Amino acid sequence: MAPARASSRNNSLLLLLSTLAMAACTTQFEREYAEAERWRAAAAAAGHEWIETSRLLEQAEATADAGNMDVAFELLGKARFQAEAAVRQAEREAEAWRVRVIK
Amino acid sequence: MNKTAVMLTSILATSLAQPAAIAGPEEDRAAFVRYFQSRFPDVEFDEFANGIYAIDADSRRQWLEIEEFPPYEFAIEQGESEWQQTFANGRTFADCFAQPSDSIRAMYPRYEEARGEVVTLEIALNDCRAANDEEPYAYDAEELIDLTAFLAFEARGKAVAVRIPADQPGAIAAYEDGKRFYYSKRGQLNFACSDCHITSVGQRVRADRLGPSLGHTTHFPVYRSKLGGMIGLQQRFLGCIRDVRAKPFELQSTEYRNLEFFLAYMSNGLMINGPGARK
Lengths: 103, 279
Fold this sequence. Notes:
Chain A contains 3 helices and no strands. With 103 residues, chain A is mainly α.
């Protein structure tokens, strides 16, 4: 096999693998984004959404669109953490507030 | 049957016979007043209308100096001018209210059975505009805040008298919702309104002291020195919610209206002394 043909085949293979990896990463991001958004919506429905969660989700999406997936996942992780903590807070406060009432 | 068993049986029978007592608004209010009077035994009940100035001598001295030339005077004048303004149809705000201008502020917030919700003074004023084919104001519009400043000034010396009739379950539900909101922790800082304005009342948050919730609603709207302008009570709610890093609700949302309803009820009997001046 001529060296030029082998090099071209390797490049195509690398491009294919890179495209597949990017597609997998994007799919994973979309899945995790949807999950984080579900938690945020649940916190909002309970009246307990925290102030930064929506902004973090927007930033994560914009960062992913720009192709910086490591940072995008990091931002998404923070948003998910906040949204889930807000839901737990709402669940806890459903009864916990009563002990604070002045009697 | 031994003595302990008899006692246990008696307690059980009593607890089954009577449902768990849930404090009503008036019991809540009495306990609220007792709490602040025991925390600040040297402060007369009427003084709580002055908020932080009732419990912080240094701030009070500064405030009394500020009151020599009240920074909210322009808002009162503008509000009076708004009040007297004639709508395109020839009517005025006064035509929407059966009461004279000095008796309107004390009527709000109120629960309106027909609407099934709490109506604040801001809502009533905007309803008046809409009923006269005028565009309602944004809830943070200067014109609307000035109107409330004028009506608060007119009502000075009238007592807060929020009513929660026992035969209006909607009013009681709105009150309970506001009460739950007030005592619920929220936001990234995990704070309830009560954490600052009951538990930590009088303590410092950076350079300022936390004011008591008793009397919180009497002096709004207020001129805030740090903002260089007037704000309404619900803008202050919004600021507090943002400060504990929770997502704020819209002005005049059900959440804030019910919170205002609860807090205003807690201040029943205190005199309206708005508009006020705060740092």
